[in-house]
Amino acid sequence: MIQPVLHLENADIYQRDNLVLSKVNFTLNKGDFYYLIGKTGSGKSSLLKTLYGDLNLQRGLGTIVDFDLKKLKEKDIPFLRRKIGIVFQDFKLLNDRNVFENLEFVLKATGWKSKAEIKTKIEEVLGKVGIKEKYYKKPFELSGGEQQRVAIARALLNDPELILADEPTGNLDPKTSLEVMELLNEIHKSGKTILMATHDYQLIVKYKQKTVKCEGGELFEVVQQAVN
What we know:
This protein has helices spanning 44-51, 77-83, 99-109, 115-128, 144-156, 174-189, 201-206; strands at 4-15, 18-29, 33-37, 59-64, 67-68, 84-87, 162-166, 193-197, 210-215, 218-222. By secondary structure, the chain is an alpha/beta fold. It has a domain at 4-92 and 161-226: P-loop containing nucleotide triphosphate hydrolases (Rossmann fold), CATH 3.40.50.300. The model has no long low-confidence stretch (mean pLDDT 92).
């Protein structure tokens, strides 16, 4: 039997006190790649924030990588985030640390102790995203595409069961967006499960995957031809 990586059942998604999505039913199985689309303010980010523990799930049922979102406590969130990788639109890198130190910070924060193992892991993920030789550079010395590659490397550090990407190409030019998308596709082909919020319809058309849409307070699956 397939074990869902993510399962929501009649879940209500709130942004503070506002109900933004009601009665969400959605299942993500291991190896799936779904786009999450919808206009600004339609609930995409609120849904993702609920999935990684920034917002509480107040009504309905929800499990993600074996965590019950309804029962999620503050102390559980670091453990949840070891099992999921998060990629943000604005990279969220620490500007006062170089690439290596940014990744080292995450590993230490998630319980890694051995310097040798930390070094090996960082080299491995930087190799996967094609940026190994820039380990000594500070984020502001990198292009936007390179910074997003570092952010994707960071998301891969703890070999997550699920990658949540919130508009990962939103701040990038079209050419760089394609490069980042190629990288995410390769990661997906290696067996990773991905849920990616985007408003870049060119990417959706070029890299066909399943798509769910937030609209009118609901989440529903759309067929590729009807994505626009």
